[in-house]
Design a protein that fits this description.
Distance between the termini: 59 Å
Bound molecules: iron/sulfur cluster
Radius of gyration: 18 Å
Number of helices: 11
Number of strands: 6
Structural class: alpha/beta
């Protein structure tokens, strides 16, 4: 009986994530992008972050699903004007299940205060939702596999400005492959979104000499917010 319940729950989760045709297709094990099959997974029609999170938080679509302790979805104001996207969750984020925690989170709070923002006025998430073991960088294939979730999250928050904090975040959002030094310090436009790139606060803790550049970047963000009124 317990086994039956576990199987039923597993099938239910797979249908939520991938759509029923993919789950029951004989070729399903070789395909991990539901959009390739024209099958629309149920999370795509979510209209709220909370229901979206509930539908995807058991995801094991890439290998990172097996190395996480907690799914790190996101936090903050679901209708924020500013969305902050960080690199893959680190160990503390994995333990707590929230983005930008610990000393890096405290530094982020100070950065936000400097431009008169706080966590109630921004939305925070990471470029992938699961922690890579031994703090390795996510593979390109893992970033791409998780990308539809990030796209959906951005669409639901619908911010005016996205601040990418870290090179993984910047390259994934901008579909580039450049060092962060080439991407930061200016305004990018991707579709309807203005995008600014800066260093991740965890990087700044180790390399405080880049705080001056970060200050310049967040001033650019503040200027955009003023421009938007
Ligand atoms: S990183 Fe993204 S795609 Fe990979 S298992 Fe986690 S939620 Fe799924």
């Amino acid at each position: 009986m317990a086994l039956n319940s576990a199987i039923q729950e597993f099938i239910h989760q797979q249908i939520e994530l991938y759509g029923d045709e993919l789950v029951f297709s004989p070729q399903s094990s070789t395909k991990d992008n539901p959009q390739d099959d024209g099958v629309k997974p149920s999370w795509e029609s979510c209209e709220e972050l909370i229901s979206f999170q509930e539908k995807i938080n058991h995801c094991v679509r890439c290998a990172l699903g097996k190395s996480r302790t907690n799914f790190v979805f996101g936090s903050g104001n679901p209708h924020a004007e500013v969305m902050l996207i960080g690199d893959a969750p680190d160990t503390m984020e994995d333990e707590q299940g929230f983005p930008f925690v610990g000393p890096a989170g405290q530094l982020l709070d100070k950065i936000l205060q400097a431009i008169h923002l706080d966590r109630t006025r921004v939305y925070l998430c990471n470029v992938v939702k699961c922690h890579p073991s031994q703090n390795r960088s996510p593979l390109l294939s893992e970033l791409e596999t998780c990308r539809p979730f990030l796209n959906k999250q951005i669409a639901l928050v619908n911010p005016n400005v996205i601040l990418c904090m870290g090179e993984q975040a910047a390259n994934s959002v901008l579909h580039s492959n450049d060092p962060i030094q080439r991407l930061r310090g200016r305004l990018h436009q991707s579709g309807q979104y203005k995008i600014i790139v800066t260093y991740h606060p965890a990087f700044l803790l180790q390399h405080p000499q880049y705080k001056r550049d970060t200050w310049f970047d967040v001033q650019l963000l503040a200027k955009q917010l003023k421009t938007n009124g």
